[in-house]
Amino acid sequence: MNELTGLVGDFVTKNDIKIRNTINILRLLLKKEYSRVELASVLGLSKAGISGIISDLLEQKLIVETGRGVSRETGGKKPIFLSINKDAFTIMAIHFDHKRCLLALSDFLGNPIQWKWFPIIIHDDYTKTFDHILENVQEFLQIHKDFLDTTRILACGISLKGLVDSDSGILRFTAANKNWTNIPIKDYFSRVLDMEIFVDNDARSIMCLDLFSSQQNKPDDVNACMCIEEGLGSSVTIGNRIIRGAYSCAVNYAHSLIDPNGPVCICGKRGCVEAHCSIDALIRKSQNLTGDASLTYEKIVQLYHENDPVLSQLIKDDFCKWIGIAMGNFTQIFNPSILTVYLDQQLLDEPLRQLVMQHYKENLNAIASQCEVKFRQNGKELHLRAAAALVLNNYLSTTYHSTLGRR
After folding, report:
1. Which domain covers residue 358, as residue numbers?
2. Do 175 and 256 sit in the same domain of this protein?
3. Residue 87 to residue 85: CA distance in whole angstroms
4. Pair 376, 235 in one domain
5. Helix, strand or coil for residue 236?
6. How far apart are CA 187 and CA 171, in angstroms?
7. pLDDT category of residue 153 using cuts at 50, 70 and 90
8. CATH number of the domain that 376 lies in?
9. 111, 125, 197, 203: which could form a disulfide with 233 (CB 3.0–4.6 Å)?
10. Quick one: residue 248, left, alpha or beta (phi over 0 = left, psi -120 to 50 = alpha)?
11. SS3 238
12. HSE-up of residue 259 (Cα within 13 Å, Cβ side)
């Protein structure tokens, strides 16, 4: 699907001007409140041009008036601020990895209203896994039938780990099961749920969320993210466009070689980034080091905070080192102005994050060293909000919005 390359896209024809301006207004209002005058100024539109679109959006209940601001020093009426109507639609959000699935009904801003999670197994036969997820989805929708009677589901966003062709909704490959190739996620889920489905990998979904939560990027701004969980996800944007590459397989950093003599990765290769920098990698190394095959991630976190000498040294000398090196390599490849790293801050607390940054900065060139690094908490809510943002990012595209306008 097409993301806008900027607030004013040069690929939009004259016949699409109203649609383009409508989309741009909605995208701005997803970030914060604006008055009509402010919107006109940002978008370079006349008062009459803004008024017509705002009237339509108010009538459709996509936006609401939230109150009056302060008059200018020169006097005049107080401006009326506008914002997205969070109750305009409900969004179905689904995220799954190789261990669990998360479901949510979210508002139009992507905030989960009702949600649940449950364990899953990635069977060689993908239909067994999908049927289990869909049974839970249908049960979830039935439980919340009273709520759904008062609203309308706009679409369903599905995020997962792996190489996803977002245009076709096909999972090309996932390290969770090497037998899963060219899996028709969109078609399978839409046939059962009878709703529009948008599919993408978890890191690009997170970047969709970032596009709506951050200030407007300049056309040549480069931002990147890494998500350190059971696996490792990564994504890059230029301006307001997510880099996808051929077959939507760009920025597959998790399975790039970082250590030729490193451990075997879940993908079958040796020394991948994910083999050193993921939670699953930390668990495997901790189990091998201690000889305790039952050691869980929760127990590792507990032992670290209890100052267990063996695991503390592993985390500090190995886990943090490789994360810092991976971040540094990633930064020098893409030279982003901002790199956002999503991780579990319960384990990677401030002292460990500082240690990661020491390793990160060791080998950066002069240009890459100017990158701003932000650490943020990952978790269930992040992925559910990201899956909902995937729907919004597609909904607020010229192709989808023009189609909706003709319905």
Report:
1. 214-382
2. no
3. 5
4. yes
5. strand
6. 11
7. very high
8. 3.30.420.40
9. 203
10. left
11. strand
12. 19
